[in-house]
Amino acid sequence: MAMKLNVDLNGLILKNPVTVASGTYGFGREYSEFIDLNALGAISVKGLTLEPREGNEGVRIAETPMGMLNSVGLQNPGVYEFIKNEIPFLRQFDLKIIANINGNTIEEYCEIAKILDMEDVDSIELNISCPNVKNGGLAFGTNPQVVREVVKSVRAQTSKHLIVKLSPNVTDIKAIAKIVEEEGANCISLINTVTGMEIDIHKRRTVLQRGVGGLSGPAIKPIAIKLVYDVYQTVKIPILGMGGILNYEDAVAFMLAGASAIAIGTGNFVNPNAPLDVLEGIEKYMKTYDYDAVSQITGNLKK
Amino acid sequence: MKFNGPVKIIERKQLLQDIFQITVERPKMINSILPGQFFNIVTTKTGYPLLRRPISVSGFCADTIEFTVKVLGAGTQSLSEYIVGDFIEIMGPLGNGFKQGDERKVLMVGGGIGIAPLKGLIEHSMLEGIKTDVILGFREAPFLVEDFLAQTSSLTTVSEHDAAYRVGNVIQPFIEQLDTNIYDMIYACGPEVMLKALATICNERKLPIQLLMEEKMACGIGACLVCTCKIKQGEFGFKHVRMCKEGPMFYGSEVIFDGNETQC
Prior knowledge:
A: alpha/beta; 16 strands; B: alpha/beta; Elongation Factor Tu (Ef-tu), domain 3; Rossmann fold; 7-stranded antiparallel beta sheet; 7-stranded mixed beta sheet; 5 helices
C-alpha cells in the first residue's frame, strides 16, 4: 500500500512534510540550480518587508560549534518585487508558497498582510521572532500582550492560512503559543534562531558588527525539539518544526515531539540535497516502523 | 543543474608548511570554469566544522580542477588531511570570475594565498598572446612562483620578512609598474587592505582594476545573504550585493571599502 506523505497544516495541505526555512533559501532561484524544487512540500521565502531593505552592515556570519550566527537584518527586495517577480517564478513548481512577513510596527505587519491577502500565496508566516533588526521582530515576539495584539490585528487583515513563527528567546513559550492559537493562527512554526554572540579575542570585538546574531544549525536542535514538544502539549493547531535539522533522523525526532511538518534551514548550506535525502529517509523510517501515513508519526512518542 | 557531488583527489602537494594543493578529477557535467570562480567544499568526513568552505580554483583543464589552500582554521585544517584517492564533496563552479576581453597587456597583483586564483588566470588559454606582468607579495616564504615564471618574463616578487627577495609589500612595485607601462587591465587578489590600496591608486589614475574579493560564506550560491560586498549605486547611494553571486570579482571603481579591512 502506498504511504501517505501529505500533511494538513490546518488548511494548508502539503504533498509532503519537508519544507525549507525562511532566510535560508531566498526565493528558491539559487537552489533550483542544484535541486528539483518540485520535491519540496513548501518554501518559506526570505523575510519580506513593505519596502526593500539593504540589511545590516559589516560581518554577518560567525561559524560556531555545529552552528552559525547570522546577522543579515532582513535584506530583501520588498513585498511588491516579491509579488511581481518571485511568485511567478515559484508557481512554475509544485510546492506551496509561504510568505514570511516582517514589520517595524503592527501597522506595517497589517499593511503587508493586507497586500498579500490578494496575491497568489498559500500561506502567510508572521515573523515576530527575528533577532537581527532594531524594531519589530523579536521585540514583538517576546511580550505576550504585544503578541496578542499583532496576531489579532494581522488575522483581521487576511483570510489566508496564517502561520506564526515563534522565538525560543522567551521565558514561557507555552503562554505565547496559547495566545497565538486563541487569536486565530492556523499553525505555529518554531523555532526561529537563538540569540547569540561570538567574540574575536585578538581584535577584542564581537565577530558580528552588530554584536548579536541568530544561532542556527545542529547546535540548537535539542532546544528546538524541547520547545516543539512543549508547544505540542499546549495547543491543538499544527506545528511546523525546525532548528538544526540535517537528516531524516532529526526530522523524525521533531515529528515525534509533535511537529506535523518540518523545515530545513542551515542544513541546506551543508547539503543542498538535504530535502530529498530527508524525505527519502522519512519514507524508509515509515516502512521500518509500519506507519501508513506520515501524520501518524506526529506526537507518537512512547510514554 | 550545476554540479554538486563527490570528486576524487588525484594529486596532493604540500607547498609550504601551511599551504597545500589538491587536484581533483573534473566531473564531465562541468562544461565551463572561469578563472576566479570557486567551489563550495565539504572539508570534513566527521560533520565538523559544519559549513562548507569556498575555495577558488588555482588551475583547471579538461580533466582536472586544482585548488591551492592555506590552512587558516578548522575547515582548511581538516581539508588538508585528505589524501590521494579520497573523495571530497564540491559544488560549483560558483560566482563571477575574472572578466577577459581583448586586452593585449595586463598586470596581475597577488598577495599571499590570493595569488592562487591568479595562477588559474595566467594559465588560462584565453591569456595566450597577452603580455602579462606579475607582482607577487608574501609575508614570509614565496610559493607557486615557478608556476608564474613559466607564464611570464616580468615577475616581481616581494616579501615582508624574507630578505632573499625584495623586502616590502606590493604597493611600491605596483606604482613603479604603472609609472612605466600602460595596461589594458589590472587583476588583483589578496588581503582586503591590499585590494583597497590598489583600488585607491587605480581609481585616482582612472585605470580599470578587477578585484577578486573574499568573505566568509554559508550557502555559497546567493540564498543566505551572509556574505556581502558594499558597492556604489547612483551618485551617493550604496547597495549590498552578494559576494558569492554577484562577486567575488568586482571592479575597483564600484567597491566601497568600509574601513574594517582584514589583514589576511
